[in-house]
TrEMBL record:
Cross-link Glycyl lysine isopeptide (Lys-Gly) (interchain with G-Cter in SUMO2), sequence positions: 156
Taxonomic superkingdom: Eukaryota
Classification via Pfam families: Pkinase
Binding annotation for ATP: 40, 60, 109-111, 158-159, 172
Location of the active site: 154
Membrane-spanning parts: none
Organism field: Escallonia rubra
The entry's keywords: ATP-binding, Cytoplasm, Cytoskeleton, Kinase, Membrane, Nucleotide-binding, Nucleus, Phosphoprotein, Serine/threonine-protein kinase, Transferase
EC numbers for this chain: 2.7.11.1
Record's protein name: Aurora kinase
Occurrences of domain Protein kinase (ranges): 30-282
GO cellular component: nuclear membrane; spindle pole
């Protein structure tokens, strides 16, 4: 299904005066289609915006009671605030939101090929061409975010969706921050946390370089690099940067070199994302179109 051009979804109506009034969305503006999935706080449905453009979207329906219970209202507000301002082919658009008494609705870009996580589970691990294409597109998206002082802080397969053409979309900005300062907060899933976040000291945009290194490893090996049975062992392995490359599946030394340059404890020594795009493994393997078609 084609995704219509963006401006049609902006949904602003002129009040006739100088200041344009922003027209509120309501559920009546949408035809609701099949369920696309279920998250922790509600459901996601395919939907068609029927007022203006017949634009196909994903409508995420979150229950206020559950958001309140889990004390994530603040996090959701931040997610909406940040994601709605980002415009990049590898970042899922958030067109708008509305709410009623019980629910909050997020109007999201529809990612026709669904979750990357499921694809990775199905394949066990990706080819170097596929992994490099994904890593390069994520690096471009993160360069864009960092340029806007947004750090994502939770890059992992579960937060990535795939568009109709096979392009990756960063989908979850629940842990992201808009920052001009260094941050100290503890967040994210353990496996993807860099040492400075495990230790809860100050961290900056280089946390996303670390997580992208972890993701690149998981793409190529099918498991994250510091995985251990006990949480405490994962912590230790992250802090020691106890990085091991198994002999199977066979992965090129060039890919291992790139991962080793990203998974570096000293934050200032991590390979900058623009340099990553020039790394021989990326140059030789990533599809120039940024799209992996199989
Ligand atoms: P979430 O609540 O974000 O975890 O979403 C629950 C599930 O709905 C996801 O795992 C996806 O399978 C699906 N989903 C969420 N957002 C979209 C989207 N924008 N396009 C397609 N499927 C989605």
């Amino acid at each position: 299904m084609a995704i219509a051009a963006e401006p049609q979804m902006e949904h602003k109506a002129s009040s006739g005066g100088a200041a344009a009034e922003i027209k509120r969305w309501t559920l009546n503006d949408f035809d609701i289609g099949k369920p696309l999935g279920r998250g922790k706080f509600g459901h996601v449905y395919l939907a068609r915006e029927k007022r203006q453009s017949n634009h196909i979207v994903a409508l995420k329906v979150l229950f206020k009671s559950q958001l309140k219970q889990s004390q994530v209202e603040h996090q959701l507000r931040r997610e909406v605030e940040i994601q709605s301002h980002l415009r990049h082919p590898n970042i899922l658009r958030l067109y708008g939101y509305f709410y009623d008494q019980k629910r909050v609705y997020l109007i999201l870009e529809y990612a026709a090929k669904g979750e990357l996580y499921k694809e990775l589970q199905k394949c066990k691990y990706f080819s170097e061409r596929r992994a490099a294409t994904y890593v390069a597109s994520l690096a471009r998206a993160l360069i864009y975010c960092h340029g806007k002082h947004v750090i994502h802080r939770d890059i992992k397969p579960e937060n990535l969706l795939v568009g109709a053409e096979g392009e990756l979309k960063i989908a979850d900005f629940g842990w992201s921050v808009h920052t001009f300062n260094r941050r100290r907060t503890m967040c994210g899933t353990l496996d993807y946390l860099p040492p400075e976040m495990v230790e809860s000291v100050e961290h900056d945009a280089s946390v996303d370089i670390w997580s992208l290194g972890v993701l690149c490893y998981e793409f190529l090996y099918g498991v994250p690099p510091f995985e251990a049975k006990e949480h405490s062992d994962t912590y230790k392995r992250i802090l020691q940067v106890n990085l091991k490359f198994p002999s199977k599946p066979v992965v090129s030394s060039s890919a291992k070199d790139l991962i080793s340059q990203m998974l570096v404890k000293e934050t200032s020594q991590r390979l900058p994302l623009h340099k990553l795009l020039e790394h021989p493994w990326i140059v030789q393997n990533a599809e120039p179109s940024g799209v992996y078609r199989g």
